[in-house]
């Protein structure tokens, strides 16, 4: 990511914070600028399909990565290992005490007809959740 103030065209440099065959997306800086929250399919279940009609099937989780040390990664919340889903669009609260996410896996139904069945992973993000962080000064 680029530094928001210096950018890659000044004396700043662009640094890779994650690296792998998974999808990392929807990143957002913390208000203090020391952490980045993002959504990733890094911990996708072992038997999960690679693609769902050319799209990522889901199995997303929300992570934190320390901007100054990319080896420090913390998983905050994840979707189920058995139901493909998206937990995306994470954002820190201004006081860093919580993270807000959008998710498509909030419903439980005894009537399968009431649950929409999508042919691929493009789902509406109609549910918004707040996840409290236990200690914003010690996120590791």
Description:
- This protein is 0% helix and 33% strand.
- It is globular, with a radius of gyration of 16 Å.
- The mean pLDDT is 75.
- By secondary structure, the chain is mainly β.
- Strands 1-2-3-4 form a 4-stranded antiparallel beta sheet, with no helix packed on it.
- It starts with 23 loop residues before the first strand and ends in an 8-residue tail after the last strand.
- The protein is built from no helices and 7 strands.
The low-confidence parts are none
Percent of residues in β-strands: 25-35%
State the helical fraction: under 10%
- Distinct helical segment count: 0
User: What is the total tally of β strands?
Assistant: 7
Quaternary state, please? single chain
Helix/strand-derived category reads mainly beta
Please trace the helix and strand order, writing H or E for each element.
Answer: EEEEEEE
* Spatial shape: globular
Rg computed from alpha carbons, rounded to a whole number of angstroms: 16 Å
First-to-last CA distance: 21 Å
- Can you list the strand order of the major beta sheet? 1-2-3-4
Sheet with the most strands?
4 strands, antiparallel
Mean pLDDT: 75
């Amino acid at each position: 990511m680029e530094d928001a103030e210096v950018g890659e065209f000044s004396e700043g440099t662009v640094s890779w914070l994650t690296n792998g065959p998974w999808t990392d997306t929807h990143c957002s800086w913390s208000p203090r600028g020391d952490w980045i929250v993002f959504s990733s399919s890094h911990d996708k279940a072992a038997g999960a399909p690679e693609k769902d009609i050319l799209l990522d099937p889901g199995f997303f989780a929300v992570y934190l990565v320390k901007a100054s040390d990319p080896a420090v990664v913390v998983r905050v919340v994840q979707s189920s290992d058995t139901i493909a889903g998206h937990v995306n669009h994470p954002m820190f609260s201004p006081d860093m005490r919580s993270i807000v996410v959008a998710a498509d896996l909030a419903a439980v139904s005894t009537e399968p007809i009431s649950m929409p069945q999508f042919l691929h992973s493009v789902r509406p993000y109609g549910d918004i959740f707040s996840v409290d962080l236990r200690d914003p000064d010690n996120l590791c």
